Amino acid sequence: MPELPEVEVVRAGLAPAVRGARVASVTVFDARSLRRHPGPSEDFVERMTGRTLQSAVRRGKFLWFPLSLRGPEPEALVAHLGMSGQVLLRDRQADDALTRIRLDLDHPELGPLRLNFVDQRIFGSMAIDALLPTADGFSGGFGGAGLLGAPAAVAGAGAGAGAVAGAGTEAIAGAGEAEATGEAEGAAEALAAAADNTFAAVIPSQVAHIARDPLDPAFDDALFFRRLAARKTGIKRALLDQTLISGIGNIYADEALWAARLHYDQSTAGLSRPRARLLLAEIRSVLRRALGEGGTSFDAQYVNVNGASGYFSHSLNAYGQHGNACPRCGRAIVRERFMNRGSHFCVFCQRLR
DNA sequence: CGTTGGCCCTGATCGC
DNA sequence: TGCGATCAGGGCCAAC
Length: 353
Known about the structure:
The protein is built from 9 helices and 12 strands. By secondary structure, the protein is α+β, with helices and mostly antiparallel strands. The protein has 2 domains: 4-207, MutM-like, N-terminal (N-terminal domain of MutM-like DNA repair proteins, Alpha-Beta Barrel), CATH 3.20.190; 221-346, Helicase, Ruva Protein, domain 3 (Orthogonal Bundle), CATH 1.10.8. Helix 1 (4-18) packs across helix 4 (164-173). The longest helix is centred in the last third of the chain and has 20 residues, at 273-292. It binds a DNA duplex through residues 1-3, 6, 32, 35, 61, 80-84, 98, 119-124, 230-233, 237, 240-242, 249-252, 296, 298-299, 301-302, 319, 339-342.
């Protein structure tokens, strides 16, 4: 369900609450939500209890929370919301329906807190995972140690406790302008940084295969265009492939394709470079606008950490608009089944060529 | 190898 | 009111 903007809203909301918070207790209500944890529930509970969460980091739709060291290997709590996951930040008494995992936290300034991991369909998960050096030497994701592996002391200045969502969304909105320069750090240096709790250039092993997202300053545009051109598939399938570009799901794929006037099954190989550039620009545009609106909510299925909805559903041009007029040309938006999902597009503006 | 179909799951909603 | 069918924003893996 949640795509990049929704997951970023959750990350930004959680960051001030988890930074420096100690895990007082863990309750696993449904072990299926630990499908990706390499061990039984008891192992998860034991290894989480007493640890301190260092920060909240995101790449694409994956979230992770670097943990205080216990043993030689740096680790993080990894969370993926799947189709229906939520992380709700509550007080210690709060109960939420469909809570699968609960973390009770003690925060040095905010006091006792409760994180309820709620997930109707159980496609989401939590897991403890090893942090490994990133392949390109840049920061593993957004929100960890700031831009390009800068020391946490510097990066943390703009995202201290209390900064809440504003800092995160602001910083990411300008992320596209940053240049990915500098030499890749060595693995040893990255691990040293991790041990020093900066967690600059590390990523959970489960997330290592996920491509950088288009709002990541280290996203390599030229590499994306090359890999896109090498694909022999339809453009929407490519956009949904998280190993090519991450963070895009069904909603924002349909929205970006509408904006770029591309049919969902347009072949990637036949895309001109200018068209691909336009598409990437529209992807960034729609993701940033959605982030500014707090994400897309259709019902209570997606909410921020406080249970509030986002407003971007009012700004959708294509997704879910079948039967309505195309805002650009006035003809009908239609919906077709594709990849076991709905694809929404304008038959006039987005023709297969 | 890259690509693709099938599958994992539950609960809300809708139509009969 | 009851009940079955349908639908949902994602990712993984086996099979081509």
